[in-house]
Amino acid sequence: SVDANGRYCQLDPREGAKAALAEAYRNVAATGATPLGVSDCLNFGNPEVPFVMWQFAEAVDGLADACVELGIPVTGGNVSFYNQTGETQIHPTPVVGVLGVIDDVARRVPAGWQDDGLHLYLLGTTRDELDGSAWAGVVHDHLGGTPPIVDLAAEQAVAGLVQAAAHEGLLAAAHDLSEGGLGVTLAEGALRFGIGARVWLDELCDRDGVDLTAALFSESGARILVAVPREDDVRFQGMCAARGVPSLRIGATDATTGSIEVQDVFTIGLDELRQRHGSTIYDRFA
Questions:
Q1: In degrees rounded to 5, what are phi and psi of residue 39?
Q2: How far from the centroid of its chain's Cα atoms is residue 209's Cα?
């Protein structure tokens, strides 16, 4: 998986680089694979400008520290400087790739759900972290504040749980939460195979102390949405408890309605979602 977030790095290049690594690591783990190595492409503006060189140094140090903590090496990469238009520098954008290995391809976990009646569990903790988010950019055209906390120990715990559950055949689907938060993850998970979902968020808001906006669009790390068959529900909950990973059932897949319903908030049809998801680039250039 290859990931980057220039908005986070603009706010804090050290933490932004860590976040890029954490997201790629999480993406690989969500398939049931074991992350083993890192490559990168570090994209920055003019290094002769002091603040750009500072951004670069901070990002490299952050990436190095995070690799040490996660225990995975950088096997190669490259640096691209002088990315600017006139005197306007690009956002610092370290692109991080993580390679993982699945010991048996039959155990790989798809990113979307294919069956009706699967239980949807959100792993990890949601915080009120909207600074630098897609929601802040798209809805408010705002970039400021501090990016989400990078908790690499929590990333390892969630990744280890998903890998173990995949090995035991307990997962029908898994999708990491990153840009756009839970709202985008639900959309992508449903569109993958055209199966909708019913979701309730009251308990999540109460448990984590967030409002509905944060519940849907916070970009807190170390979170993965998984779909679990009903017959494996008890085993899966026991595995979460044994490993100390926060888990909460927030919904179920629904093949009958052709929509995503967030209880008492909104319902949106998959046809509308698919049209919006697939027409963005075309509409820009039409």
A1: -130, 165
A2: 20
Q: Is the pTM of this model over 0.90?
A: yes
One-letter-per-residue 3-state SS of 213-246: HHHHHCCCCCCEEEEECHHHHHHHHHHHHHHCCC
- Residues pairing with 98 in the sheet: 38
Half-sphere exposure of 249 (CA within 13 A, CB side): 14
Whether residue 200 has pLDDT greater than 90: yes
Q: How far apart are CA 159 and CA 36, in angstroms?
A: 13
Mean pLDDT calculated for residue range 114-118: 97
Q: What is residue 164's three-state secondary structure?
A: helix
Query: Taking a C-beta distance cutoff of 8 angstroms, is the pair 283, 149 a contact?
Result: no
Beta strands in the chain (DSSP E): 2-3, 34-43, 74-80, 84-85, 88-89, 93-101, 119-123, 173-176, 196-199, 224-228, 247-254, 259-262, 266-269
Identity of the residue numbered 137: G
Alpha carbon 132 to its chain centroid, in Å, reads 14
DSSP letters of 56-74? HHHHHHHHHHHHHHHT--E
Burial 94-117 (b: 16+ CB within 10 A, else e): bbbbbbbebeeeebebbbbbeeee
d(CA 232, CA 98): 30
Please tell me the distance from the alpha carbon of residue 177 to that of residue 158, in angstroms, as a whole number.
Answer: 12
Q: What is the pLDDT of residues 26-80, one digit of tens each?
A: 999 999 999 999 999 999 999 999 999 999 999 999 999 999 999 999 999 999 9
Cα–chain center distance at 228 = 19
CA distances from 284 to 184, 271, 278, 279 (A): 20, 20, 12, 9
Tokens, residue 225:
């949405």
